[in-house]
Amino acid sequence: MMKKSKIEVDWTVPDFVKAFQSDASLKFLNNFVDEQPKDLFGITNRKFSLVNQIHSNKVIQIYKNDHHFTCDGVFTYEPNVIVAVKTADCIPVLLSNKQGSFVAAIHCGWRGLSAGIIHETLKKIKTNSDDVIAWIGPGISQQYFETDRDVFDFFNKKYNFLTKHFIYKNNKFYTDLVGITASLLKYHGVQKIFGNSISQNYCTFSDGFLFSHRQNKTPFRLISMAWINA
């Protein structure tokens, strides 16, 4: 698997579908939603808003860059409208398709994943999942994601086939959040998957050029975003 100090969104999509993954060289505060840092404007040449994330399965379609939404999945069919999520251990997922007719960004924490955020996003987009192309961004790896039994129970109740992504040791469950994300994408029909654990291998906790809230309670976040350039 590829591992570089700068992460590229290495999916295979039409050239007019653009995407960007930040690293620790760009320091975005967790609480910014409406005021976009100048660094991102230099990358996209567009001002845009971020959604307020709440670890839910709520998904919203957006039609313009200036919006004020609370959700954990966002998608658009509109050209030049940017979808984005912020993370610092949770898993970011970007979606498009071979036609480049939409882009989506999903914030995948364990609560959102267990509540069905991936399924809700694909259902709202209303596209053939065989055509969907996914990119999994940087998140915490299993050896550093120590959880209590409640996390295991949440997944076991709704998606018991995901129990293979847990290791029980010293009265704790070590959870493979990246593996769960990839398995849920496949479970819901997405077969073209790129990025973390597949074509790349990154861990927010151990890779010093990324941000990890679990490691040091950082106020900074990584940004994963995509748009249809027109």
List the keywords:
globular, copper ion binding, CNF1/YfiH-like putative cysteine hydrolases, 230 residues, alpha+beta, hydrolase activity, Purine nucleoside phosphorylase, Cu_polyphenol_OxRdtase_sf
Task: Summarize the structure in words.
The chain has 230 residues and is an alpha+beta fold. The protein has one domain (17-143, 177-228): CNF1/YfiH-like putative cysteine hydrolases (4-Layer Sandwich), CATH 3.60.140.10. Helix content is 20%, strand content 26%. The strands form 3 sheets. The chain has a 6-stranded mixed beta sheet. Strands 1, 2, 5 and 13 form a 4-stranded antiparallel beta sheet that branches. The chain has a 3-stranded antiparallel beta sheet with strand order 9-11-10. Strand 10 (166-169) and strand 11 (172-175) form a beta hairpin. The longest helix is centred in the C-terminal third of the chain and has 11 residues, at 177-187. The chain is globular and about 50 Å long. The two termini are 32 Å apart. Belongs to the purine nucleoside phosphorylase YfiH/LACC1 family. Pfam families: Cu-oxidase_4. This is Purine nucleoside phosphorylase. InterPro entries: Cu_polyphenol_OxRdtase, Cu_polyphenol_OxRdtase_sf, Cytotoxic_necrot_fac-like_cat. GO terms for molecular function: copper ion binding; hydrolase activity; S-methyl-5-thioadenosine phosphorylase activity.
